[in-house]
Design a protein that fits this description.
The protein is of the alpha/beta class and 368 residues long. It is built from 15 helices and 13 strands. The radius of gyration is 21 Å and the shape is globular.
Amino acid sequence: MKKRVIHVTSRADYGGAPNYINTMINNMSEDFDIYLACPKDEPYYNIWSNNKRVKGLFILPHREFSLKHFINLVKFVKKNKIQVFQANGKGAGSYRFIKLFNWKLKVLYAYRGFHIHKYSNIQRKFYFAYERFMTLFTDKVINVSKGEQEQCIDKGVLKKSLSCQIYNGINPLKKKEVEELSNRYKGKFVISTLSRFDIQKNMILMYKIAKELRDYKDIHFIWIGDGDDKPILEKKSIEESLKNIDFVGFKNHKEIAELFSVTDLYLTTARWEGLPFALVEATSIGLPIVASDVVGNNEVCVHNKNGKLYPSQDVQKAVESILHLYHNREVLNNYAKESLNIFKQFFTVEQMVSNHENLYNQVIGDGL
C-alpha cells in the first residue's frame, strides 16, 4: 500500500518553499502518493493542479491562517487517509494544530529559514514561546542547514532529539551558451545574482557594491528576479547613470542556466537565509561565490575553498572579495571546480529526496 504525504505551504508563488515542494513532487518515488495544500498563487498552483503526481489539492489562503480552511483541511486529511503532514514555512506551520484532531497523523515542520531578524526583542520572546508551544503538535522538525538547526536549539525553541537536518537539493543546471548572450557580455567579468528584491535579500547593498565598482568598465552585473525593491533600484540606477547592471527580471530554469553560462562569479548579499536554492544552483553549474557570512550561505560557500565570505552589510569587504577574484583568475577557476564538488557531495536532489523518504518511513513506522 502506498504511503500518503501532504505538503502544506501558505504560498505558491516564487520562493524557496514552493521550489522545494515542486522538486519533491517530481522526484519522490512511486511508493508515495502526494497531496498538497496551497494558495491559488502563480506559477505553482497551476503547475501542481496539472501534475499527475499530485493526487489531491486543497486550497488555502495566501499567507494567513483561516479557521474555516483549517476545519476543512482536517476533513480533507482524514478523507484521504493521509499519514504524514508536512508544513513548510511559518505560515503553514500554524496549521500544525491539526494534530489535535488526528493524533495518529505524523506532523512534520520545515522552518525553511529561522527568520527572526525583523523582530524586536519582545516579538522574538513571543515567537520563541509560540514555537516551543507548537512542538507539542510536531513529531519532527526539518532544519535545512546545520546553522539553522543550531539557532533553533540555542534559542531554546527546539530540542535536538526533535530535529532532523536535511539539505535542500536540486537538479543541476547545465551550461548552455547562447550566441546573443556571449556576444553581449564578451570581454566582461560578469557577476550574477538570482534573488527576490526585498529586505531579506538586501539588494540595496548589492546596488552599493555595483556602484563602488562602476569605474571597472569590464565588470558587469546581471540581476535575475523581481520584488518591491526592483523598480526603486532601477529608477536609482537611471538617476545616477549607473550602467553596469542589467535588470533581467524572473527567468525560467533554462534561461537562468543560459545567464549563468556567461557568468564569472555569483554574488549574494542576503541578511539571513535558511539554505538558499539560488546559491545551490550556482554551485551546480560550477560558479565561484562571494557571499554574506550568514547561516545557510556559509554552508554552501566555504571560505577560501569555493568562494569568499564577507561580513553581512560590509560593502567594502564584499568589494575587496570580488576584486581579489577579479585579479586572480587561477584562484577563481579553482573555486569554480570546488563549487561543483561541493554540490555533488551535499546538494543533489537524489540526496534530498532519499533523506526525506527515509524520514517519512521512520515516522510512519514509529506510529502506525
